[in-house]
Design a protein that fits this description.
mainly alpha
């Protein structure tokens, strides 16, 4: 009678699967979570032991190694969502959090920063809770003003109102349409349309627009939604 040779790799695989089934039967409900969910559970303090369901070191241990490690687990935990308290502290105090955002925010970017829905964002813009400027049917939201407002909401250093921010401080006395494109984060066509419609105060001399910073600053004061809160 002939003997059938079974490749050793099949035997090893079968043994590994049996070992996994036996190990799984002894795990706690938290340890039987999906590996990603299990790592998240340990990271938030829900785990009950030094090992996860795949037999890897605990996420808490991996997280302590910092982002310098090249393992995928360290990279995973380096980008785990922080608690709301940690996120808010970093959002206000950490320049690295704010640097990726442009000086003028879109409503969507503001939603991301404040973790609010689109309807809530527009509601808070309209009632003046979040500082912004309403120009020609568009909300202009400056990062510096939002950051100043957030700092004023801290319960560690309460103040009556946010410190006034001059978003034009770094601009020259005479602005170009390119300056306005950056300031308002609008296209060239939109800036010229606003100039022709008088939405932005300027002089039109021999085919050239002369835009004074003092006039634009006054326009920003007039269009600020903080005027609503002062009424």
């Amino acid at each position: 009678m002939s003997t059938i040779a079974i490749p050793s790799r099949l035997v090893n695989n079968a043994g590994s699967r049996l070992h996994c089934r036996q190990a799984a039967s002894t795990r706690t409900p938290t340890q039987r979570l999906h590996p990603s969910a299990n790592r998240l559970a340990y990271a938030r303090g829900w785990g009950h032991g030094p090992w996860d369901n795949a037999g890897h070191p605990s996420p808490a241990t991996l997280r302590d190694t910092g982002p310098a490690s090249s393992t995928p687990y360290d990279r995973f935990f380096a980008f785990l969502p922080k608690t709301p308290e940690e996120s808010n502290t970093a959002m206000i105090d950490d320049d690295h959090y704010w640097d990726p955002y442009p000086q003028t925010l879109t409503v969507a970017e503001m939603q991301t920063i404040l973790r609010i829905s689109r309807p809530t964002a527009f509601s808070r813009l309209q009632n003046g809770v979040i500082p912004a400027h309403y120009i020609a049917g568009s909300w202009i939201v400056f990062k510096a003003e939002v950051r100043s407002w957030l700092e004023s909401t801290s319960n560690q250093a309460p103040v009556d109102r946010a410190a006034e921010v001059d978003v034009l401080a770094s601009y020259p006395e005479e602005l170009t349409y390119q300056d306005l494109m950056v300031l308002f984060r609008k296209s060239k066509e939109t800036i010229y349309r606003w100039l022709h419609a008088g939405e932005i105060p300027a002089y039109h001399v021999t085919g050239r627009w002369i835009i004074r910073k003092t006039h634009v600053r006054e326009k920003l004061r007039e269009t600020s939604n903080q005027n609503i809160r002062e009424l």
